[in-house]
Structures are given as structure tokens and as C-alpha cells.
Amino acid sequence: MALTVAVCTGATQAQSKSAGCDSAVLAKTGSGECSALSKQIADVLSAPAVARAHWGIVVTAMDGSPIYAMNEGQLFQPASNTKLFTTATALAVLGPEATFETKVVARGKFNGAANLAGDIVIVGGGDANLSGREMPYVPPAQRPKAAPGQQPPPGPPALRYLEEMADQVAKTGLKVVNGDIVGDDTLYPWEPYPEDWSIDDAVWGYGAPVSALTINDNQIKVTVSPGSAAGQPAVVAVDPIFPYYTIDSAALTTGPVKSGSHVQIERDPGARVLRIYGSIAVDAHPDEEELAIHDPAEYAAAALKVMLEAHGIVVTGTARAQHRLSTDSRSYMQASHEPIPNIDFSRQYSPAKSTQQGEVVLAQHQSPVLIEDMVVTNKVSQNLHAEMFLHNAGAAVLGDGSTVNGARVVRAFLEHAGVDKDDYVFFDGSGLSGHDLVTPRATARLLQYAATQPWFADWKRSLPVGGEDGSLVERFGKAPLKDHVFAKTGTLGEARALSGYLDCASGKTVIFSIMVSAHTPRSNVDREAMDRIVGLIAAAN
Questions:
Q1: With 80 as the cut, is the pLDDT of residue 10 above it?
Q2: Band of pLDDT at residue 146, cut at 50, 70 and 90
Q3: Does residue 190 sit within a domain?
């Protein structure tokens, strides 16, 4: 598709580039003239509030033919646009119907059915949905609405599947465990935080550690509510209700009317104490925060121990985690670029399973199919689930679910898809790593390749829809863009990205990727400019 010619007739390449038209695209299209779209985008990006930021944009037809580009070959932090690469790889390698198994096993010797000399072990199999999440994903407009003045009904209990497995164990007739309750997440090496994740993120649910044994997204919900009167202690509630963290709220009070909410939560790395302090106004709505569980396998073991004891099973030992430490001493860049011989993208690999000789299976749970988790992951930009896709791909293809093996599978897939090998580097699967880099043209090439694959319809429906759901529910809410933008968002510090598919005024669909870095901190003006550019692209094509 050639560039639309209007404005700047007879412009030189230098003049065209200053108006926002990349010389590479001019060369590809055989045009020495910049388009009306180029001039319109240049006008948006010349505004003082966004002009100092670094922008990269590419627009192509669905067959990859160039339409517009600016800095398309330069590297940007993709933030959660990384999930496009991770989820496409996982879908291609594992297939939409893949499932993951969690099991509870006995490792030891039985004296009849009632007595075990050994350990009860809950073995993580890479299931991201041992939680109260209801699946499949339902768009906000289709969810049941609460009656005026009432709270929506609560969802399923966060630990429901753990309870179900405890019930299965109790039904075997087991009465005494002369051993420990163990949380085994050795399907992946114990690498809870990929390189360059911010230490600030580790406290919060969105930065929860990665584990093959994941319970409730490896997070708990802490709700702080005002007391009955100013000066009274505020009220702290934890869900799930489970004595894992100790709460220190001695410095948390109820403030006077209209004083607002000023609640702070701190946890030292590895600590089991949550310090909650500050104030919340007597008339304020409760403050809800999602906090990360620092060792999910240990948490799962401790919760299962409590549940088994509630069934009358005596456990003489303790709850503990069983991790597997990495022994790969190579540099990440070296290891992640190592080719994978004989990888076959014409087949789908089976999810890896963790087994030990002689173990007796007492309970098990099968996950929802992969595609339903993928819809959740891309719609709401769920970081932990994206990381687990990365690890599960590495485990399935290479027999070891390390971060670097997952990155190797992603790299092999992208080279197979025709993406330039120097146009990206990924240190994680979610985009939380500040080391992740990608070019807009690599993102557009992935989007174009995906559109040719048999799994495309499944993958496209996982993307947020403008004005409708996911992370785009409050963007593109009016015609003509509402329900016509299918794209993944990304936000990390002073970087932002939006890439996907766009239904245009002509009825055609185009591919676009817009990335910005070094924008003004804690400002949304770059996002507003980005959304204006999407509107211009739709109107011009």
C-alpha cells in the first residue's frame, strides 16, 4: 500500500522526516512525498507536553505493506507489550487446549491407609489459576450488576481448589502424617524475580514472585476500613483469612471527616510482617490493596496443613517449601541467545510434569484450558500469568522451566516468524523488567505473522477491545473507535506502548505499534497523544 500523498508535495527526505515520515518507508513505497497522516501525526507530537519524549510508530497493512513509520527500527521499553510476544509463543508451542495439573502426593511409606511415615507434598504443575477467579473472562458490560446501595455478591473463595484437594486427601482415609507438608515448585528453578524487576514492585500483587506452585495469584488482599469514630483504630481485614503474615497496625488510625485516605504498607524483603500505618477518614471508602506472598510454595504448604488438620488429620511435622536452585552460570545474554536445535513449530508440545518414583497420588486438580487463561492475561495485563507462560514454554520444549529457557523458546519462535533477531531482547515474560527492549517494527511483524496462523482468532480475542474491556475499557469509548481497537497496552515508569489491530474508516484493518519512552513522569499527556494518533490512523486508512 502506497503512502497517501497530500501536503508536502515534492518534499525532500529530510523535510519528510521532520514531518514524521521515515525515510525507510519512503524508500519502500517509492514515494518522496510525505502524507497527510504524517503531517497530522507530526502536529500531535510537536505539542510541548510530548515533544521531548522519544516516539516510535509503525503502521502496516495486514499483509505487512508499509503505510507509515517513524523510528520504527529503534529500541523502546515495551512494558506489557512484551506479553504479545510471550503469549503468541505459548499459544504456538503449547496450543489453546493445553492444561496444567496440580497434585497432592504421598512420599514415604504407608502403614495401612491411615498412617504415613513421610511427607505430603503439593506439587505445582504451572497452573496459574488455583484461585477464586471465575473463568472464562466476562467483559465488564456483561457482568451482573449489584442492586443500588448493595455490594456485588462475593466471588468463589480464593483457596477453593486447595480445599477441594484437601477433601480428596481426607477421603483416602489418611489419619496421621509422620512428616511434613511440602510445597514443591521444582518444575521451575527458584527464580522468583527476573532481572531488573524493581524492588518497589515486590511488595505488591502485580510484582508477585514467579512459582510453579501459584496460589491466588501469589497475593493476598488487605482491606483497611475506618473505625467507628475519628481517633479510633482503623480496621484491617485479610483475604484469604490465613495466618501467614503478621500485621503491625499500631500506627494506623481513623481520621476526621474529609481527611482522606493516607494508608501506607511496608514489608521488608523476605519478611513475614506487614507494617500498615497512616490514617483513613471516618467517611472514606475502604482502601483495598493486593500484596504479594513472598514464598508461594511455603504459603500453599502452610494452608494445606491447616486444611488437613481441620479434617482431623494429625501432622507431626511442619509446613515448608521445596525449591530447586538454578545451576546455570552463563550470562543471561549468552544463554538466552543460544539456538534450540530441532525445535518444531508444526507441532504442539505437552506441558511438562514433575514426578518422583514411588510417590502415591492422593489428590489432583486440572487447570482451565490455556486460551482462557491467556484471555485473562492479556485483557487485564496479568504479570504473573505471563511469566508462567514463559516458564511453561521453556519446560515443555526444553524440559526445564527457567526464565532463560523460556526466553530461548520466544527467540526461536520470533526467528521462525521472521522477526529480525536484533530487534528485541526479553528478560522476562511480562514486561516488568527494565532491560526488555523491542522495536515497533518487530511488534508489527509479530502481529502480521500471527494473523496468518491457525491460532490467530483465539489470540486476537485475548486482546483488550477499545471502550469495551480489559485495559482499554476506559479508552476509545466513542464512535468510530469503540469496539474497533484490538490492542495490548503497556506502561512502565516513563515508557508506554500500544500495539494491535485497528478497523479503519475504509473498512480495512491495519496493524499499528506506538511506543514512547522518556515521557514526563506521572503524566498522561503521552497516552492522550497516543490515542489521538490512533484516531488519525483510523481516519486516514
A1: no
A2: confident
A3: no
Tens digit of pLDDT for each residue in 280-336?
A: 999 999 999 999 999 999 999 999 999 999 999 999 999 999 999 999 999 999 999
> Rounded CA gap, 122 and 322, in Å?
10
Q: What is the pLDDT of residue 2?
A: 30
Task: Answer whether residue 17 is part of any domain.
Answer: yes
Query: If DSSP codes are grouped into helix, strand and coil, which group holds residue 57?
Result: strand
How far is Cα of residue 180 from the mean position of the Cα atoms in its chain? 33
DSSP string, 458-497: HHHTTS-BTTTSGGGTTSS-STTTTT-EEEEEEEETTEEE
Distance CA 166, CA 175 (A): 12
User: Contact 511/523 with Cβ under 8 angstroms?
Assistant: no
526 is a domain residue: yes
* Length, in residues, of the chain: 541
The helix-helix angle for 403-416 and 383-398 (nearest 10°) equals: 80
Whether pTM exceeds 0.90: yes
Q: Report the relative pairing of strands 246-248 and 273-281 from DSSP bridges.
A: parallel
Nearest to 56 by CA among 77, 36, 37: 77
Q: Is 103 exposed, middle or buried (0-12, 13-18, 19+ CB in 10 A)?
A: buried
Residue 27 pLDDT greater than 60, yes or no: no
Domain total of the chain: 1
Task: Identify the CATH number of the domain in which residue 63 sits.
Answer: 3.40.710.10
List % helix, strand, coil for the chain (3-state, nearest 5): 30, 25, 45
| C-alpha span between 435 and 234 (Å, rounded) | 40
Asked if residue 52 belongs to a domain, the reply is yes
- The domain in which residue 19 lies consists of 1-72+439-541
Cα gap 173→432, rounded to integer Å:
46
**Calpha distance 425→438 (Å, rounded):** 6
Query: 394 vs 8, 115, 399, 409, 518, CA distance in Å?
Result: 50, 38, 7, 6, 33
Whole-angstrom Cα distance, residue 395 to residue 403? 10
Q: Where are the beta strands (DSSP E) in 359-484?
A: 360-366, 424-425, 437-438
Q: Is residue 205's pLDDT more than 60?
A: yes
Read off the C-alpha cell for 190: 527458584
